[in-house]
Amino acid sequence: MRCSRMLLVTLREDPAEAEIISHKLLLRAGYIRRVSPGIYVYLPLLWRVLQKIINIVRTEMEKAGAQECLLPQLQPASLWQESGRWDTYTQGEGIMFALTDRQQRELGLGPTHEEVITDVARHLIRSYRQLPLNLYQIQTKFRDEIRPRFGLMRGREFIMKDAYSFDADEAGMKQSYEKMYQAYCNILERCGLSYRPVQADSGAIGGSGSQEFMVLAQAGEDEVLYTPDGQYAANVEKAVSLPPEPVPSPFAQPEKKFTPNTATIESLCDYLHCSPTQVVKNLLYQAVLDTGLMVLVMVSIRGDQEVNEVKLTNAISRLAGDFQGGQVLKLTIADQDNQNQWASQPIPWGYLAPDLPDDYLQKQPRLHPQFLRLFDETVVRLTHFVTGANQVDHHWVGANWGQQFPAIQQTVDVRKARPGDQAVHNPQQILESARGIEVGHIFQLGTKYSQRMGATYTNEQGQELPLVMGCYGLGVSRLAQAAIEQSHDDQGMIWPAAIAPYLVMISVPNMQDAAQVAVAEELYQALQQAGIETLLDDRPERAGVKFKDADLLGIPYRIVPGRSLAQNKVEIVTRKGRVSQEVPVAEVVRFFRELPPQ
Ligand code: ATP
Ligand code: MG
Predict the structure, then answer these.
(1) Nearest ligand to the C-alpha of residue 113?
(2) What angle do CA 473, 479, 485 make, to 5 degrees?
(3) Ligand number nearest to the C-alpha of 53
(4) Among 107, 384, 469, 559, fewest CB within 10 Å belongs to which?
(5) Tell me, what's the pLDDT at 206?
(6) Which pLDDT tens digit goes with each residue over 327-356?
(7) Residue 196 Cα, ligand 2 centroid: separation in angstroms?
(8) Is residue 492 within 8 Å of 578, Cβ to Cβ?
(9) What is the pLDDT of residues 420-448, one digit of tens each?
(10) Using omega within 30 degrees of 0 as the cis cutoff, is the peptide bond preceding 197 cis?
(11) How much is the pTM?
């Protein structure tokens, strides 16, 4: 391609709308243009990158035995009602764009395709002989993200590859999952990215196990906790660890004490000269269930620890059956204003006890009349602990479960693991933290969708059984930007060769110089004939401008027919590391043909 013929508009200044470097560079180098929040035009250069990624994804999917198809983006509400996800995806934190057509039928724009594919499976898969089966597609997804940001990282319209596997049993599903795991590793390696697979929370998709593929980069929205021995890595949303041992309690005698102005753990520990590991902290959360019911959740956790709200949401959802609810639509920590809406006698925060009586809640139609009391694992073994007394400026010290407070029947893990904690698999290993960009997420779904939607097959013995499913997402457009976030310098992008829009850029320093132009044209033709994708910068610009643009665009190799033409040589500059070498004109094609694989 000739730059003079291309829609190549580069910006010198950082656009105000961009916060992270990859987003700034994509805008500055003319790869994307924003139409509205979270909605972008993929300009020709980016489209080439996306096509490269798609080709790699496609070959690895086919290699793993998956077949490509294309599913509709407009999906009827009825399918989502069958799976029970219509409400969670359209209300509360819902991310599905929903609409009503002229016949008053409700539709959604596909944020994901479990329902549609399960519908296909229930109609077309009959027998174990058709299994295993894996179908995938590469397509635009729509999500009404509340905070679209960082360019392609969190768009409202973006390209995803999604695959769905169907197996006869759990063991088959695990094999299909392993194949996809390997395919994802291959894809990310071939794209030239440094990544890490991590254990992940399964979220609203559901199912038993899941892993995310994180591209490691400082600007990543996700935090990953891992151990140096390589045995453990998990998204912080999912991570587990051993909490530090509690310091022994100095309070031998149980006693309700006057503790003025001790609403925070810090002020309380200062006042009592004790360690936060001896405090039982009691927090109130408001959980709105998909039935519209609000449940107040009292979480008791050790004073030095924090609540992981993803784990808490999952724990409440698991118990929501007790309240005729299926899932948590919204979880918020209750503040003092909230309290005034449902408390019969508000108590200042910081003084609540684990046994706060249920009659503290005023009777209200959409409010569950009892607390859901959850005890984190960290509090159960504490003895002679400190906690609130349901009275302002007072705390219990030296309290025990089964004495001053009811014995704990059941515990949950809702604690946030932190860097510095000991690992569960080996306490010698200390968790470390890294930032990552989630580019892929693979799930062992099991029979959640097949059961709800009646997708079954007949086994060898003639029994009808639900299909065992897996699903596998990969953010193609997010991956493109993640590559830049991971690979750039202060001058611009540095594309890994495998996904660069072009491999080579010929920058002619002076278009008035006939010798330079002649060699550039000759090389341009020869390289293209050799199948090497080449950009020719034949614009009538100054050399400085062209070199700046070449750096900004991040094309892996730049050829400059300049001073060394006198010796019949050109300069070849590698974008990464800016290594420059002189190569005889006649050997340029061979140079690129013989590049080591990267
Ligand atoms: P996130 O946690 O980042 O919101 P998710 O868990 O909702 O993502 P999945 O439903 O697992 O994502 O989707 C599969 C993949 O699609 C993700 O791993 C990510 O690469 C990509 N993806 C998801 N949401 C977006 C988005 N808004 N913009 C661009 N890519 C996205
Ligand atoms: Mg995810």
Answers:
(1) 1
(2) 145
(3) 1
(4) 384
(5) 57
(6) 788 899 998 888 888 888 888 889 999 999
(7) 14
(8) no
(9) 999 999 999 999 999 999 999 999 999 99
(10) no
(11) 0.91
- In this structure, what token pair is assigned to residue 130? 């058709």
* 187 SS3 class: helix
Check whether 317 has a pLDDT greater than 60.
Answer: yes
- Which helix (H) or strand (E) covers residue 81, if one does? helix 77-83
Q: What is the number of other CB atoms lying within 10 angstroms of the CB of residue 235?
A: 22
Looking at this protein, which amino acid is placed at residue 88?
Answer: T
Could you give the CA distance from residue 317 to residue 206 in angstroms, rounded to a whole number?
11
CA of 287 to the centre of ligand 1 (A): 24
Q: Which of 379, 524, 567 is nearest to 4 (CA)?
A: 524
Q: How far is the CA of 160 from the centre of ligand 2 (A)?
A: 13
Cα separation, 231 vs 196, whole angstroms: 12
pLDDT in tens, 225-275: 999 999 999 999 999 999 999 999 999 999 999 999 999 999 999 999 999
Which residue's CA is minimally distant from atom 22 of ligand 1?
475
CB 569 within 8 A of CB 514: no
> Residue 479 CA: which ligand 1 atom is closest?
20
Q: What is the pLDDT of residue 341?
A: 87
Select from 89, 193, 438, 474 the residue to mutate for testing ligand 1; criterion: most ligand atoms less than 8 Å from CB. 438
Rounded distance from Cα 438 to ligand 2 centre (Å)? 7
**The token pair that represents 138 in the structure block:** 């590469």
- Spell out which residues line ligand 1, taking CB within 6 angstroms: 112, 143, 145, 154-155, 158, 160, 203, 438-441, 473, 475, 477-478
Q: How far is the CA of 86 from the centre of ligand 1 (A)?
A: 19
d(C-alpha 553, C-alpha 492), whole Å: 7
Q: Return the SS3 of 515.
A: helix
Q: Are 496 and 44 in contact (CB under 8 A)?
A: no
Q: How many CB atoms lie within 10 A of CB 252?
A: 9
Ligand 1: atom nearest CA of 111 is: 10
